[in-house]
Each structure stands twice: as C-alpha cells, then as structure tokens.
C-alpha cells in the first residue's frame, strides 16, 4: 500500500517538518490535506500523500482562517 | 510571489521554478536518460558500503527512483525520498517536495543525507549545505554529487563561438560550474567535519551532437539560468553543433562528490597546531642514531 494510494501523510514525516519560510511549527489539516504555517500565513498542499514544501506553491491564508487556528 | 533578494543575498543565477519545471517535464521518460544518475548512484552506493556504520533514517534527494540501487550492505534503514519536482517522486514510500535552498526539516533528523546531481543548480550553495548539515544528527553523513569543473565545456565553447560568429555577441547558455577545490572549501565553510571533495570525469562521445541536447533535456538539465538568453536561431544551433563535432564531438561531465560529517563530540579531529607533546626534531634525531 503506497502513500500515493491513501493520500495520507506518513506521521513520522510530519514530525520532522517545519515551515521552510519561518522554521516555525506546522499544523496538519487532514480535511483539506494541507500543512498550515501560522507564522508564514501559508498552507502547504499535500498531493497524493506528498507534502509540497514550496512557499510559491502554498495557499495564502485568509484572516478568518488565521483567526480559527 | 517572488520578492527581490535582500542585500547581501547571493546573486540569483538559477531560476528554481524553471529548474523544477524542467525536472518535472523530464520525469516521464527519465529512465531512457538516466545513465549519469545510475553511475552516480552506483558510486554513492560504493561509498556507503565502505562506511562501517548504519543509517537508520536517510534522506535521498534527486535520485528519481534510483534509490532502489541502494544495497543492504549500505546499512540504510528508512528512506525519505525528496525532489524539487513532485513528478520525480512516483513510487511507494514516504516522499516530499522541497527546495534545497529552503529545507523544511526540524534540526537533527537524519543519519544520512544523499543529494544526487542537484546542488549545481542552487543559488546559495553554502546556505543549502548548512541546512543539510543542520538536518543531520551529530555524526550524520552527508554525500552529494553535483556537476562541476569542465562539465559541458566543449558545448559551451561551441555555442559561444557560433553565436559570436553569427550575431556578433553571445549570452551564457551553459550554467557556470564550480571547481572541486572551491566546492571542498564550501563544504568546510558550511561546518562539515572531515570534508572531502573528489572528482569523476566522464567523457561521452556523440556521433550526432543533437543527441547530447536530447540527453540534457531528458535528464531535466536543460538550461535553467535566471537570465533567459535570446533564443538560438536554427543557423546558430547548426553552426554550434558543427563546431562541437569538429572538436571531436566529446561531452565532458565532471561529477564532484562531496562528503562530510555533521560535527560530534567523539569524532576524530585534527590536533591544534602547537599541541604536540613530543618534539619532531628529537624523533628525527632518534631515528638517525639507529
């Protein structure tokens, strides 16, 4: 069973990661399939179980989304 | 979303987003063009096999599926595969996209980091190396292969001469490559212990120089310079390829291997100058008397 099939991220991998922009912590949003960096106001996408840790590929967070974190 | 680099930042020579697209585009047919990557992986496997240590957690960047060449004798446990382009990460097992210029790792996570033919195209090499070092546990091993020295020098010269002859001027079309000595120094500057840089020079003869260009594109190594040159005309390309063939039709790939260890307390270190307890002169005199 590959990660690409389940779309889930390896939990051990999540533990290793920080935001490449701020070096701050990331929050895993399982529903949206994103890794959220509050400090950088960015949500890094996870595609087929592969986190895309490039700020230019990340989605900027809206104010109301930030407030909910 | 790109912002101008702050002052003091290294010059932007490579367009990383373009490099990612080149790598992505080449991914589907990469297996037909992976001869250099295979040779590099085989060499890295040799090096790992000769290290009598196990690496429970490894990061392998840029191997594009060739992680499978790693043998049990290398002592590598879990492998996290990574690349600049998601398309190069097909296959089972955990994988991750990141840019070696801005790595996303909490400190001290890996026992081994391998970087395969990728670091020649970063803008800030010392920065990238420092980040790799920080991601290593103490006494973790870093092994990288990158193009250096005289890589593609004959192609560079042919393109330059052809463009000068036809246009009366030329723009760079082959990326600049660092020499092995400065790469070794950079490894040291990045804080690696026991840094070693060595070089494997590979010469490939091309009967038809078009195939060289096809190989470069197939590897995902087509020009990714930030300063986009004026497109080549058919006449310039034809003249350049004719010059390349006339010079012997040989392409050179200089692969520089960098190895270093994340510093640790109990590592062997060179003694400080002046810290010797016995005089060399006495030792030599003692030898002579025998």
From TrEMBL, chain A:
Q: Which InterPro entries match?
A: Trm112-like
Q: What Gene3D superfamilies does this protein map onto?
A: 2.20.25.10
Cellular-component GO terms for this entry = cytosol
Q: What is this protein called?
A: UPF0434 protein SAMN06297382_0478
State the similarity comment.
Answer: Belongs to the UPF0434 family.
Automatic annotation (TrEMBL), chain B:
Domain Methyltransferase type span(s) in chain numbering: 86-143
Q: Which GO terms describe its molecular function?
A: S-adenosylmethionine-dependent methyltransferase activity
Residues of the region (Disordered) are 266-290
Q: Which UniProt keywords apply?
A: Methyltransferase, Transferase
Q: Does the keyword Transferase apply?
A: yes
Q: Which residues cross the membrane?
A: none
What's a BP term from Gene Ontology annotated to this protein? methylation
State the name under which the record lists this protein: Methyltransferase domain-containing protein
Species of origin: Amphiplicatus metriothermophilus
